[in-house]
Write a structure and sequence with these properties.
Blueprint: H1 3-6, E1 10-16, H2 20-30, E2 36-39, H3 55-65, H4 68-73, E3 77-79, E4 81-85, E5 93-96, E6 110-112, H5 115-128, E7 132-134, E8 138-144, E9 150-156, E10 162-172, E11 188-190, E12 196-204, E13 217-222, E14 225-231, E15 236-244, H6 248-251, H7 255-265, H8 267-272, E16 277-278, E17 288-291, E18 295-297, E19 301-302, E20 305-307, E21 313-314, H9 322-341, H10 347-362, H11 380-387
Parallel strand pairs: 1-2, 1-10, 2-7, 4-13, 10-20
Antiparallel strand pairs: 3-6, 4-5, 8-9, 9-10, 11-18, 12-15, 12-16, 12-17, 13-14, 14-15, 18-21, 19-20
Helix pairs in contact: 2-5, 2-9, 9-10
Bound molecules: flavin-adenine dinucleotide (FAD).
Flavin-adenine dinucleotide binds near residues 22, 48 and 178.
Amino acid sequence: MTAQDAGVQEVDVIVVGGGPSGSTLASLVAMQDHRVLLLEKETFPRYQIGESLLPSTVHGVCRLIGVTDELARAGFTVKRGGTLRWGANPKPWTFLFSVSPKMAGSTSFAYQVERMKFDKILLDRARELGVRVREQCSVTDVLTAPDGRVHGVRYTGPDGAETEVHAKYVVDASGNRSRIHNKVGGTRKYSEFFRSLALFGYFEGGKRLPAPNSGNILSAAFESGWFWYIPLSDTLTSVGAVVARDMAHRIQGDPENALKTLIQECPEVSELLDGATRVTTGEYGQIRVRKDYSYHQTRFWRPGMVLVGDAACFVDPVFSSGVHLATYSALLAARSINSVLAGRIGEQAAFDEFERRYRRGYGPRAGAPGGNRPSEAAPPRLRRLEHS
Ligand SMILES: Cc1cc2nc3c(=O)[nH]c(=O)nc-3n(C[C@H](O)[C@H](O)[C@H](O)COP(=O)(O)OP(=O)(O)OC[C@H]3O[C@@H](n4cnc5c(N)ncnc54)[C@H](O)[C@@H]3O)c2cc1C
């Protein structure tokens, strides 16, 4: 922290977390000349899962914040759609983002991204746009006025010192593992249906689907759940199994062996990985296990505070919608904050509208009103779970 920053005690907006939701929101608010402080507990680049993007992120939100060219230069795998071995059809089938292969428009693709690179591009862009980005700063609490309004945060800096900083708005973009979201009130409600575990690792030398589908995500259902197979480069592949929570005992203790066994159970994936080697060093070297339970907070905002991205809600990764919802919610929240700060609309109306739209984007799926419906497409084991 520079001497100049040490004196920062008040800004317009504090953003907690520098993932896609936090850096997008910070950029969009800074673009309206507001003073934005972004506090991130890690040092970027940092690892994150969530590598298969949708066109709305790449051509919508990323264009608005001005990183489209940078993404194109980064050399990410071009994703033209998805290939699925799912449901009753024993043969893999493919959907494209374009109307047809011969009528592909300029926005009919997304990317498969290494999140260490993608998230850093977005965070660096926020810096360029004037956001004060502070890494290794972990927010521990929000500051609340006697009338209940949130007006700042307390955080621990790189030197271990505690600091308080004040703002008109605090945005919680700290993802699914931080507890800051509790401060908005309400509760986090978990979906009864989408309560799965994800077990994943990285492989060098995995085969590719035949062109023109070589950049697609492959989602393959099998007896115990489903696999993702995401080509991150010509040689590096992200491979993960999503299985029911009652399989935790099979995974705990020896995740390496559990992943190997699950791969053998899924012919599509084991065939593609024939001859490939698992990466065992660096950030991609470990097998990770994540609960990917779907949830939503019953409130998305309170006076002075708003939740975006995984802090607010999360839907099972089968939809590849996490980064889309993170950046879309950031766009909606930035719009409300900018409108209120400009005096164009009252806070209640602006944030009620934010919450309504955000829930609509999330809602038809698990966990929201009308969600939790049985899915015809669920793989056998998940379908059984649904009826148990
Ligand atoms: C198994 C699995 C597979 C997935 N696959 C996909 C996929 O293929 N495609 C897709 O789009 N999405 C996928 N997702 C979802 C995706 O990972 C998330 O939706 C996305 O990362 C959310 O972005 P975010 O910015 O809200 O949070 P994050 O990316 O989690 O960023 C939050 C940031 O906040 C920081 N932070 C946390 N606490 C604090 C604190 N107290 N103070 C300061 N900083 C803090 C963290 O260090 C982090 O950098 C998947 C998720 C899972 C679990």
